[in-house]
Amino acid sequence: MNILITGAAGFVGKNLVENLKCLRDGKNRTRPNLTIDEIYEYDRENTVEQLDAWCAKADFVFNLAGVNRPKNSAEFKAGNFRFASTLLAMLKKHGNKCPIMLSSSVQATFAGRFGISEYGLSKRYGEELFFRYAEETGSTVYVYRFPNLVGKWVRPNYNSAVGTFCNNIANALPITVNDPNIELELLFIDDLIEEMYDAMECHPHRCIYPEVSDEWDGFTPKPEVDGKYCYAPVTHKVTLGYIVECLHIFHDQPQTLIMPTIAPGSFAKKLYSMYLSYLPKEKVAFPLKMNVDDRGSFTELLKTVDHGQFSVNILKPGITKGQHWHNSKWEFFIVVSGHGLIQERKLGTDEIIEFEVDDKKIQAVHMLPGYTHNIINLSETEKLVTFMWANEIFDNNYPDTFFEPVK
Questions:
Q1: Cα Rg of the chain (Å, integer)
Q2: Residues 109-141, buried b or exposed e (16+ Cβ, 10 A)?
Q3: Do 311 and 301 form a contact (C-beta atoms < 8 A)?
Q4: Is 386 exposed, middle or buried (0-12, 13-18, 19+ CB in 10 A)?
Q5: In the chain, which end has fewer C-beta atoms inside a 10 angstrom radius, N or C?
Q6: How far is it, in rounded angstroms, from Cα 50 to Cα 334?
Q7: Which of 40, 119, 272, 275 is an active site residue?
Q8: 230 CB contacts (<8 Å, ≥6 apart)?
Q9: Using an 8 Å Cβ cutoff, are 182 and 69 in contact?
Q10: Coil, strand or helix at 111
Q11: Which residues pair with 300 in a beta bridge?
């Protein structure tokens, strides 16, 4: 399958191109029904002749080209309507009836807060042009009215408040939020890419846009099997205030070490991923506090809200550490370098259980509640490095840690 992408250098275009390459090269095996041969990347620096040649060979077209921030309103029509006319004329000239997808906007609904704008009008004209083309040629067209598109590589200080917030907070720049209660509907790029794959496989999600009524706002898609329009089904509706709150938590993580609860597929997971893509080089790596004494060092790596904390312990040759017990806390010790011995004794008894550990056969050893435990570096020359996990974050006010020698 040969894929033509117009607007290939834009936010959606770049993400789509790189993901199609992964399909083409066999790096992404989640879509076995899709075979990608050529990817034609058309943008402003390409020639009309190149576009014409690619229109003759394309098996699927993604028309992502468009104008968002023109110098004057006339550019909307040139960028969002005139180019689409040229593209469709070239396909028609070559008799190429391949499926074609149009990137439109919810602003084309003219509903609610969007009203009638030059941008919305240009998008509506483009939609009508594509629907007429489908009637005239019998080609399949997929028209998507996108809400706010977000994700890695969104250009900040342009047409995405979320992109601007991510960039500015990551780079310690000021942001302005006039009304934190304003709600946005966000479509993350990875969810959009999956929908684009669905369209390439000829099973996009279809919908209609009912007229404004007491039951419908006019710009929310209503799923319908034979709907005129298409939509990406996974979006997130959140307030500006909540977005900024999350971003400040992400920003503070290198200091707090606390990773918030982030469920698979959640808004927080996707926003965090987007935020990280804006980090400047000097923030990609950050120092951790090493608690050093004559025995070695102990460093907290990461704390989670509901899955405990992770640490690394470095023990000098011949040194013993631990010698304490917990009421309800439990831990895993995982030796990743060196040779050591872990000992555990149930309180009130003399019976000791022992585990010889090294980096040649890595294993996880439970530190049992109600058992005093230690770890001994058996080497006379090498340090012992142990990765440790505790089921809860250490609380100075309730440490649940009590000194008691194992022997």
A1: 29
A2: bbbeebeeebbbbbbbbbbebbeebbeebebeb
A3: yes
A4: buried
A5: C
A6: 58
A7: 119
A8: 101, 142, 143, 144, 195, 199, 204, 205, 206, 207
A9: no
A10: coil
A11: 311
User: Token digits for 347?
Assistant: 């309180």
* Token pair recorded at residue 219: 């710009």
- Write out the chain's pLDDT in tens, 407 residues: 999 999 999 999 999 999 999 999 999 999 999 999 999 999 999 999 999 999 999 999 999 997 555 555 556 565 567 889 999 999 999 999 999 999 999 998 888 777 788 888 888 999 999 999 999 999 999 999 999 999 999 999 998 999 999 999 999 999 999 999 999 999 999 999 999 999 999 999 999 999 888 788 888 999 999 999 999 999 999 999 999 999 999 999 999 999 999 999 999 999 999 999 999 999 999 999 999 999 999 999 999 999 999 999 999 999 999 999 999 999 999 999 999 999 999 999 999 999 999 999 999 999 999 999 999 999 999 999 999 999 999 999 999 999 999 99
Measured CA to CA, the distance from residue 159 to residue 180 in angstroms comes to: 18
Contact in structure between 19 and 158 (CB atoms under 8 Å): no
Of the candidates 2, 19, 75, the one whose C-alpha atom is nearest the C-alpha of residue 44 is 75
Residues sharing a CB contact under 8 Å with residue 43, sequence separation 6 or more, in sequence order: 6, 7, 8, 9, 10, 13, 65
Sign of CA dihedral 248, 252, 254, 257: negative
Question: Could you confirm whether 119 is annotated as catalytic?
Answer: yes
d(CA 202, CA 211): 27
Tokens describing residue 398: 């309730």
- DSSP per residue over 168-206, as a string? HHHTT-----S-TT-EEEEEEHHHHHHHHHHHHTT-PPE
